[in-house]
Amino acid sequence: MPFFIQIATYLFCGVTMSVKIIVGYLRLLQRVRQHYHLEHLSQQKAWADYWLQFSQALDQELEQGFDLHVYTQLLKQVQSTLSRPVSLVLAEHATLQDVGLIGYLASTSLNLQQALSLLEQYYPLIFKQTNLEQLKIVEQQDLIQISWGALYEDYREMYELNQALIFKIAQAIIQQHLIPPVFIQLGHVPNFSISYYAQFYGCDVTIREGQYCIGFSKQILRARSFAADQHLNQMLSSQAKQSLQHADTFEHRQQQFKQKVMGLIEQGLRHQNEVIQHYVAKQLHASERTLQRQLKQYQLNFQDILDEFRLQQSQLYLKQGRALTEIAELLGYADQSAFGRAFKRWTGRTPKNYRADLHQD
């Protein structure tokens, strides 16, 4: 199945959807790429521009981070050469330094409990501009549960990678055989057999659409870190707090809210059992009027966000060769004609012409 391999930027709401990740993820991918001798992937014409961006960002150690969409597309290309989930392969080659400040905070923590607490507090720093989902850590009787939402199915590999990295961070901190997690929960159906994940984590793996989760027994929380240094940890925590405050801008909150709405639109279109705006408002525990007021505060418009999502998805579906009737249904249109009119309004071309141009290219 072909992937979405061309970037296009469309300004519907005055802002673009741009999520950045820290450069450590690039170093990790490059390590795996070299280990498996995959340098030839950049020679494939359709992917050459993506790898060029990747190489330039890696060389320059970009402070502003690297585009998450480009990174996920590279993961999918690398996946096409591997016989196991790319997320697990990368995690096997990961170091604490790959997750940046979070890794240093974790390694200097007194124990795993403190490390996880800091992870919850500063998890947004893994994403340089906009955090995708809020990570939550909840303690229950004999269990500690780490979970986060998974609104964007296209970021499945990234969700899986972060889950595997949390597991590897815990292993690296205590420098001993980590008692296997009590359970692992995937938020999207993986492209591989569950057995790969069960073998990696050493425990049962389940699927619950929309939420990733990892559960540890509380008995490992007091396991002392091999490199505990409270003075250094406090200095790093202060640095992390300043970084979070610096990132807390109107643009940051605007994009964060826009992404949340877009993710709920994706969910709502999958269900298609009620009006999409009503569905989104309900998931946000708000009325439609309240939702409109919240959008206005961020200089956003619901119809513009819906159009942007539909345009992005329709281009992806057309590249995948899906039938126009199927695309119309997936995007919540009454029929193929309604979808065709909308697509031409956005791009100036009919879906058939757009697909013909793809084949010509």
Automatic annotation (TrEMBL):
SMART domains in UniProt: HTH_ARAC
GO molecular function: DNA-binding transcription factor activity; transcription cis-regulatory region binding
Keyword vocabulary terms for this entry: Coiled coil, DNA-binding, Membrane, Transcription, Transcription regulation, Transmembrane, Transmembrane helix
Signal peptide feature range: none
Domain HTH araC/xylS-type positions: 259-357
Membrane-traversing stretches: 6-26
SUPFAM superfamilies, alphabetized: Homeodomain-like
Residue ranges of coiled coil: 281-308
Entry GO CC: cytosol
Xref: PANTHER family: HTH-TYPE TRANSCRIPTIONAL REGULATOR GADX
Name of the protein: Putative transcriptional regulator
